[in-house]
Every structure is written in C-alpha cells, then in structure tokens.
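Onboarding guide, step 5: your first structure request.
Type a short instruction followed by the sequence, for example:

Predict the 3D structure of this protein.
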Amino acid sequence: MKKVYINGLGNISCQKTFDSVFLEEVVVETDENVLTAKEPVYKDYILPGASRRMAKGVKNGIVASAIAMKEANVSTLDAIITGTGLGCIEDSEKFLKSIIDNKEEFLTPTSFIQSTHNTVGGQIALGLQCKAYNFTYVNGGISFESALLDAKMQLETEESETILVGGIDESADFTTNFFKIAKVIKSDNEKNSSILDQKTKGHIAGEGATFFILENKKTANTYAEIASISFVNRLDPNQIESQIESFLAENLLAVKDIDAVILGINGDVDFDKYYEAISNNLFKNTAQIYYKHLSGDYHTASSFGVWVGSKILKLQEIPEIIRLNSVVKSNYKNVLIYNQYLGKDHSFLLLKQC
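The system replies with structure tokens like these:
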C-alpha cells in the first residue's frame, strides 16, 4: 500500500496561525474561558457579497482550505472530507431563535440551509467547482479522526491521489451557555490562569478550522507521514497505557521510540486524569507537549494537535509555550498524538518524519 503524506497546512485558530511560521505570536488568554478564532482578512479569499452571508465557521473553513491548497501547490482534488462536532451551530441558533420570535410563521430558510454540518465541505466544493467525493463526518470527539482515516484508506489503496481533509467547529452564544450550565465549559467566574493548575470541572472552550492536503507521494513541501490512526469509544484511565503500547506494537514501535507525545490536556479535573496516567509514567522520559491552552477545546481540536505535530516534524523544534516538560531530543522522528473528549472517543495518531 502507498504511504500517506501531509503536503499542505491551513489553520485558522484562536491564535495567529494563518500567516506565521510556528506560534511566534502567541497570546495565552487568562480572562476568558471561551476563546474566539483570530480572523484573517476574508476578502482576500472570499467575495465580500458572499462572505456576508456565511457563518464564521464556513468562512474559516474556506480560508484554511485555500491556504493548505496553496502551500501544497494543488488546484484540483480527488476528495473533500471534513469532520465537525456541532457543524454550523451559529446558523442553527439563528434559525431556532427565528422560530420562537416569529411564532413559527414567515420563516426564511437561509439560516436553516446554512446550518447543516456539511455546509463547509459543500461551500469549498462550490468555490472550486469540484464534483468529486465529498463527505462530512459527525462523530463527536473523533469527527476529525474519522475524516482522516477515510482519506488515509483512499490514498493507501490509490483510489485517490490528492485529498483535502479538515476539522471545523465554531462557538455560539446559546450553546456555550448550555455547556457552562452542564459544567462542560468552565463558568464565567473561573478564570483561565493556567490549564495545568485547574482543579475544577469543565474545559476552556475554543473554535477553529484546520485543513490538510494529503497525498500518496512525497514532495518538497511534505511535513510528515501519517503512519497510523486508531480510536476507541470508551477506556478507563488504567487502560490507557496498555492501549498505547498495543497501538505502538502494531506499528513495530515501543515507547522508547516515541520522540514526542502531544496530549489534549484541557483543564478539566474529571478528564485530565487520562493524560496524567501516561504523563507521569509511560512517557516520563519523552518530550511532552500540550496545546489546548492556545486553541481551547472543541470536538475537532485534535486537528490543531496534528498541525502542531506536523510543524514539529518538519521544523525539528518545539516552541517553549507548548512544552509540558523539559525533555529535549536532538531529532524528532516519531510523534504520538493522544486525545479524548469528555472521557470518550479516545484517539491515537502516529506521525513520522519524512
């Protein structure tokens, strides 16, 4: 089977990641528990008339995909595959609010049409006039990983040669408030001093759109090889070590072969114990990285983690702002990314240096 390579990246996030090399202009927010995306100049990518009718998640997805395609120097795609947890939730809220405000009468369908989860993939395809395979995965905390696995299988079997894959989620006021009430997101009186010091329920929320051009051939722009992807719906904290060891063994690797591990620590006292279980034991001698203090957490936040891993393998450096420990390697060859969402949807992703 063919190998799968990341040949282009585009990232719109809560940091200025769309026109910098690797986290040079980082702002760690300490006053907000809901982080918002740093917006690019949309008119450089989308006609202003069309942009006004689009939700921010759609616009961010279009821009991130355009950046990834430009970097990989591709203009045509064999497939567009996206993953999202809540889809275009902002337009969903607008439509539901109009139902209430108008007593279910005289409703305009625009917000309803644009609220579907596959809106981003559809808008990208319309802009490119791409009539190829177009699929959106809505699989909770492994929505992005599901899209990535689909693309990986198609490229390995040579069904496709160039695929655009992305993870997109946006925040919206009503949904955010519901999450705060349910203690999924930290309440307003709990400030984000440091997610490593948090001892309360709930995470720091975020939003973003991260896209990748995947191909089954290596180019001058190649960042990394996607060697393996695995996910499990439910695991206990005491099962994580054995699960990781089995995953690595399937790829003919051991813990000592992993040069850096990227963990989805988000400040939730109930679920960070999954990461602590391996941080203090299995990977205590491995370079450890965290990133959700920069991106916030959302269903497809792991796509930001893959972006971080890809940058590390290509640039061979780890910015101090994302270091979890002081372990340094002279060369980073194998990077493991582990993420879970609310104690479920555990994902393991192995990236290799090219």
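Each response can be followed by summary notes, for example: Residues 56-72 form the longest helix (17 residues).
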